[in-house]
Amino acid sequence: MVALAEVMAGDSSIVSVNHWGVADPKMLLAIIWKLHVPPVPATAAPAIVAVPSPLSRKVTPDGKPLPPPEILPDEVEAGKGAWREMWHGEYRSRSIMLIIFNLVQSVGYYGFASWVPTLLLAQGITVTKSLLYTFVIALANPVGPLLAAAVADRSHRKWQLVGACASLAVFGLIFSQMTTALGIIIVGVLITFSTSNLSYAFHAYQAELYPTRIRSRAIGFTYAWSRFSTIFVGFMIAFFLRGYGTVGVFAFIASAMVLCCLVIGAMGPPTSRMRLEQISH
């Protein structure tokens, strides 16, 4: 291997032979390569020029390097979180707020989405038409978050939640009075927009209320109350539907949404345009 390297480097006088006195074939090939392939001069190598990307030109139009990122005093967490931390200081009120909200918001979210065909049947609409209306209303599910993406980061998420809950309450009461196909579909789509916006704003908002060291634990615990209340939502909707009709059902849903508005509006901290280290310490 040493002889081969020396031949490739230019010393073709060194040829290794085996114990029978025959030259190594690999060495002969190396000599032929050296004799027939001219060396490439160093000046022929293309120069590598750093070309700034369009993104870097936008970020640093003057070509100067960016300043180092600012590090806040509490940005680097030193220590592990504990379950009891979510019940101390400012996190206590946030945990209580999220528990109440999760217990109640499932009434509006699942009370309408899961019971649309039954509610339409109770209003005298045939099974075939009620399924058709439900299908058309369900098509609006992906559209709501896409429309809300235009304003998602331009206003406080707590007020987006309040607006979504208030809209769900108002549109629900209007839906209970609709008798025409067009009216049912339009108001049903508006309710779907409200529930979709409630969901995306809520999940983004709750993740901002806790520091990294306890975020998953705290969100998992508070969100579990939503799963718990879902067990009883169907029974409550059936109770109000049997005793008070669709108007009673949507009055019940509207009351739950008003409670959500009060809880989030009174207890929810602002989070938009703030660093997580400023929201949670």
Characterise this structure.
This protein is mainly alpha-helical and 281 residues long. The chain has 2 domains: 2-38, no CATH class; 86-279, MFS general substrate transporter like domains (Growth Hormone, Chain: A), CATH 1.20.1250.20. Helices cover 63% and strands 0% of the residues. Helix 5 (116-122) crosses helix 6 (127-138).
- CATH C-level of the largest domain: Mainly Alpha
- Chain-averaged pLDDT: 80
Computed CA radius of gyration, to the nearest angstrom: 34 Å
The string of secondary-structure elements, in order, is HHHHHHHHHHH
Counting DSSP E segments of at least 2 residues, the number of strands comes to 0
Could you give a short description of this structure?
The chain has helices at residues 2-9, 25-36, 54-59, 90-113, 116-122, 127-138, 143-148, 157-175, 181-207, 215-267, 276-279.
